[in-house]
Amino acid sequence: MTELVTLQLQPLARRLTVPRGAPLQEVLFPLGVEFPCGGRGRCRGCRVRVRAGELPVTAEDLRLLGPERVAEGWRLACQARALGDLVLGLAQWEAPILGDETPVAVTPRPGLGVAVDLGTTTVVAQLLDLTSGRVLAVRSALNAQARHGADIMSRIEFALADAGRARLTGLIREQVGGLLTELLAAAPGAGSLTEVVLVGNTVMHHLFCGLSVAPLAHHPFEPEDDGLKVFAGAELGWTFAAAAQVCFLPCLGGFVGSDILAGILATGLHRSERPAMLVDLGTNGEIVVGTRDRLLCASTAAGPAFEGARITQGMRAATGAIHAVRLLAGGAWAVSVLGGGEPRGICGSGLVDAVACGLEAGRIQPSGRLPGGDALKLAEPVALTQADIRELQLAKGAIAAGIELLLMRLGLRAEDLDRVWLAGAFGNYISRASARRIGLLPFPPEQVEPAGNTALRGAKLVLCGAAGPDRALPEVRARVEHVALKEDPRFQDAYVAAMGFPVR
Q1: Quick one: 42 and 75 in the same domain?
Q2: Which of 53, 74, 190, 295 is the most buried (most CB within 10 A)?
Q3: Cβ(489)–Cβ(401) under 8 Å?
Q4: What confidence tens digit (pLDDT) does each residue in 70-91 have?
Q5: Half-sphere exposure of residue 185, counting CA atoms within 13 Å on the CB side?
Q6: 436 within 8 A of 399, measured Cβ to Cβ
Q7: 371 lies in which domain range?
Q8: Residues 350, 356, 362, 363: what is their CA dihedral angle, to the nearest 10 degrees?
Q9: What is the pTM assigned to this prediction?
């Protein structure tokens, strides 16, 4: 008989009974605790504090947390097992996932459809009545693959290990199937599921479809097969929807996936008479610019700073994160904390604000240097270090250089653009004025428009449209040219120049 132990989690007020010896990673991940390095003991993102009971100290605990933190009870959850009853101090990692309630035009037909935005971090799915286009139910969750790596490259690394790809493919197919089951249960008697449309970046496309990600792990980083993939539900193990058609929309090239293709459809960029741009700010920042006659797209390896990773006290936009900073008269700071209460870290939008305010106050130099090398204190116990500012410079430099080079290829200037759409959750919450102040987006704030979850909206457009994806998308894809920025001899110079902050 399996021996059980009890875990009490604070401040969640959760009490769990688990088998003795259960890995904490397996127990805590479903509750929303992140394991950014995939549980490899390379970061501090999964740390928990022992408030009662015992967790043995590991070499990784001492190396990454230090003796003082370990003495205070801190441990890396990814390295620990529940060997006895425990009370753990656990951050309440919420996952604010951006949905989309925008009505879309529909060509009526019988049945139900589901649109899925399959992100590296989060998954959101909407159930629609295909006779009206009405949203009947919404479900969202952290991507179950994230326990094996928070970002794209760590996910690829895991996939290339023995049986790793099969593990990731099985996880995501099972998770999406579970979300579909929940959606159908939320709308009993509404009809049968006939079609599912998924969008996501190139790595998510490959892992869901069971394709090799090996070509994406090395130069020239081009997939062997990034086209439209169609399955029957039965092929994916979805017995509850065995006859449903499941379509994963095609990618645009390199790391520019079908989520960006869906964004083009959602914003109408492919019909724009005047030059416009779509920017998705993330670990791999994607950019599309042009008109209905010609569109250029590219991805830039911005790194995870916009998501709070690799920042000393960085975190996602969750309870306790500083998400906004403003400068008061006299040079004092005012910070806003998600969920109220005391801050415990800073997320991407707060990081951009803090650096913008630091530049305005003269506490950060245009080179990015902190005078005197001291940390920039925001609100106890949160501060920015010199290394944090450098991480932001690397991220924003990659995006700004990509924007500059794509505009140059089309003979355009920033002021020539009619509109700049910001896609995704980060783009929805970032201060446009702060983004311009640090040189991330060289556009007047009135020119920039948060566009919400364009990936999900574009998936709904295809789902509800008159023509299936095999007929609706080739014409749009034919207008889009993928640009490999690393192959452009000007990229490195543009990147280095864009890492500095604008001088005022």
Answers
A1: yes
A2: 295
A3: no
A4: 888 888 989 999 999 988 876 5
A5: 8
A6: no
A7: 313-383
A8: 30
A9: 0.80
